[in-house]
Structures are given as C-alpha cells and as structure tokens.
Write a structure and sequence with these properties.
alpha/beta, Aspartate Aminotransferase, domain 1, Aspartate Aminotransferase, domain 2, 7-stranded mixed sheet, 17 strands, 440 residues
Length: 440
C-alpha cells in the first residue's frame, strides 16, 4: 500500500481536537463516568491498558450473538460468516498501518509477536531448513542489536535467542535525557548485525525514536529491522511501508481493543520464507505420519483456534481511531504530554524522566518524587481518584541507567482532558507535603 493510501490521508485534514471534542468522545467510554474513592475517575494509565468505547464492546458482543463459529474450517453459513468477519478485520487493521492483508498475522499481543519472531529465527538456525529460511539464521559471530530503553518484551526474547544460538547481543545506549546515543549507534551497526529490534516510542520517557534513520543504518549492513509499535500504533499515524521496516508488532489492548489480541506485520516475502513457530491445525496443507507442509502467511503462523471476536473488536477500535483522526489524536496527546512535563517541572522535588519541555514526546510522563517511593505516590494519587502506573514499567535496564528502581508514570489518550491533567498535577504537588517531605 502506498503512503498516499493510508486511511488518514484519504480525507481532508480534520480540525484540531479541543476539550469540547474530548468531552464528547468521553461519552463513548462508560467506565470513565464513575467515581473512584469518592472522586471522579482520572484515568492516566492508558500506556498500560486503554479503555474501550461502546462500539468496540458491541462488535465483540455482536460476533457472539450472531456469527460465533470456527473460521476457515466449515462450509455452513455461520462458519462462512465468522470467516468473513475474521478476514475483514485483518484487512481493516492491515490498512490502518499501510500493509497488505497477507502481511498481518494475529497474535495474542506484541509480546507474542516478538517471541514468534525470535523463535522462528531460532528454528532457522538449527537443523535442516529450506534455503529461503537461512536468511533468518543467527549463530556464533552474529549479533542482535537492541536499545537500552526496551521493554522487557523486546529484550528477553532476544537474550534467549542469543543464548540458544551463540549469537551476541548488543545495545544502543541511552543519553541522560532519555534519547538514544546516535553516535554510538552508528558504530554498533556492523556486518555482524543480523537483527535490529527497537521501540518506536519509549514507554518510560515518551521519546519518539528516529525510525527512518535507524532503519537505514540497519539496512545498510543487511540487518532485519523489527519495530515495537506498542506505544506508537495507538497514538501516531503509522505507515510501515513508508518507514521501510521489515516487521512490526502492536497490542490491541493499548489501542481501545480487548486484551488477548495483537498483530505482527511482516513483509510478505519474509513471512513466507520464515519457519513456523507454533504448529498444529489450520496452518498446514498436508500432513503424513512423517512430515507436514505449511501454508503461506498469514495462516502459516496462526495455528489453532484464533481470537476471532477480539479481532473483530480490534477492527472496530481501528475504525474508531481512524474516524477520530490519528493526526488529531497525536497532536492532542502531544499537548497533554507537554502540559504534564511543564507542570511537573514546576513542582519542587519532582524529576521528570526523558526530554525537557519543548522536545517532542508521546503523551506520557514518568517521574520521581524526591523522598517518596513510587508506590506510595501511586497510592496517594489513587486516593484522589487518579489512576497512574508505578514500578519499573517492564524496563528495568532503562530505570537502572537513569539511576532509579521505579518511577510513577501518567499516560494520556484521546479521552483525557486538560482539566484532568491539571487535577493530576495538583495532586502530585500535594504528595511530598502529605508524606512530610520538605525541601527543594
């Protein structure tokens, strides 16, 4: 799919979102209307899990009420209807990221997608494999490159691949402001680099990485490029072809969809050449007692019964995001992110992780409160009805690099208002006095 055929580019530019628009959007999210601990809920944990609009919940319910059946396995009417829903959802989600239908594989989540890749590459590294699969093999002398800011889901699978195959693992270091050390990066890409897997947006600092530049560096040495788009697909207009990446993963539950559904994008010629990871029913052409032959992608990587209703709901979520406008969402969240950073910077004893005010970032802010543990900060905010994330956010190496064990993270989405951000900032300002901590 060409850049010009991205869903957001099929329509004229939409006006920027305002608080009035967001208040209308909130009517589609019933959970946001409740009180928590006697206070109106301020949900600032969408970086972990987003809330779901009515249309998404109805899409899943409608499937079970009207079309529930196994897909690709029956000739009866319900089976055909279920298969149509399943494959229509694939087409919708693929178009959302600028991919073709056969380039999108359903997974349980992004973690499952990354493990699929790591184990498939591992399968290409042992025993007899078809000639076309050898391009994925890694072994002693080869290197897998990641970054110091990765979520554990984009680190541990590669550690395990290297452990199994004897390949080496290297990482691009992070600067004090949370951005990648691009000078170091340029020296780390060598002819030994076989795989480069990195996050588009940091789930801790909100840093938006220069995907095109990093991808060019990787391709210049012949490496495969994998993008963790968990924190970008829900918030940015994502076009995998324009970015020139080879693979990408994202999770539905972070982009208005249910849990248990995610997707892996891969260039068609690569997916068809990769060895399968999970094997069993629905992904084979013929089976004898001695061997099996496998279908092309995407079915090649979709063994067993799939998350059919969740796929339908993810398609509904994608339609909701597209109708709202991804560029509008990105601009609104950027505004909220800058508002959070500026407000936190103004509170004594607060250290914000990542770039300073004015530098582009996602709509999230992780921070340290001097003298108060992150878990205590989170509990205090919860008492005020404000939901945030506390801990290391599955990014222990990054926290260690920044001199912390844990932080508090507020992450906004299209349904958050400026008033909610201000309520959050006012509550954070009360944290240190509440715990009796004084001083700058």
């Amino acid at each position: 799919m060409s850049v010009s055929s991205h869903p957001d580019r099929l329509i004229a530019p939409m006006p920027a979102l305002t608080d009035t628009d967001v208040l209308r959007i909130r009517n589609d999210f019933p959970i946001l209307a409740q009180d928590v601990n006697g206070q109106p809920l301020v949900y600032l944990d969408s970086g972990a899990t987003s809330q779901k609009p009515i249309s998404v919940m109805e899409a899943e319910q409608e499937f079970y009420e009207q079309r529930n059946s196994a897909v690709h396995r029956g000739a009866h009417t319900l089976a055909v209807a279920a298969t149509d829903v399943f494959e229509d959802a694939r087409a919708t989600v693929a178009a959302f990221i600028g991919a073709q239908e056969n380039e999108l594989i359903w997974t349980a989540n992004a973690t499952a997608g990354l493990n699929l890749l790591a184990y498939s590459f591992g399968n290409a590294s042992i025993g007899e494999v078809p000639p076309e699969a050898r391009q994925f093999a890694v072994g002693p002398g080869d290197e897998v490159l990641v970054t110091e800011m990765e979520h554990h889901a984009n680190l541990v699978p590669w550690q395990e691949l290297c452990r199994r195959t004897g390949a080496g693992l290297k990482f691009i270091p992070v600067m004090d402001d949370g951005t990648l050390d691009m000078e170091a990066a340029s020296a780390l890409f060598t002819q030994r680099t076989k795989v480069f897997s990195f996050t588009h947006v940091s789930n801790v600092t909100g840093v938006i990485n220069p995907v095109v530049e990093l991808t060019r560096m990787a391709h210049d040495v012949g490496a495969l490029v994998i993008l963790d788009a968990c924190q970008s697909a829900p918030h940015l207009a994502l076009d995998v072809k324009a970015l020139d990446i080879d693979f990408a993963v994202f999770s539905g539950h972070k982009m208005l969809a249910p849990t248990g559904i995610g997707a892996l994008f891969g260039r068609a010629e690569l997916l068809d050449a990769m060895p399968p990871f999970l094997t069993g029913g629905s992904m084979i052409t013929t089976v004898t007692m001695e061997k099996a032959r496998y279908l092309p992608a995407p079915q090649r990587f979709e063994a067993g019964t799939q998350a059919i209703s969740q796929a339908a709901a993810l398609a509904a979520a994608v339609n909701y995001l597209t109708e709202t406008g991804m560029e509008r969402i990105h601009q609104w969240e950027s505004l909220l992110g800058q508002r959070m950073v500026a407000g936190l910077d103004a509170i004594p004893g607060i250290r914000v992780l990542g770039p300073p005010v004015g530098i582009p970032r996602a709509g999230l802010a992780a921070f340290e409160v001097d003298g108060v543990h992150a878990h205590d900060v989170g509990q205090y905010l919860d008492s005020a009805g404000i939901a945030v994330r506390v801990g290391h956010h599955c990014a222990q190496p990054l926290h260690r690099r920044l001199g912390l064990n844990a932080s508090t993270r507020a992450s906004a989405y299209l349904y958050n208002t400026t008033a909610e951000v201000d309520a959050f900032l006012a509550a954070v300002a009360r944290v240190r006095p509440y715990f009796g901590v004084t001083g700058a």
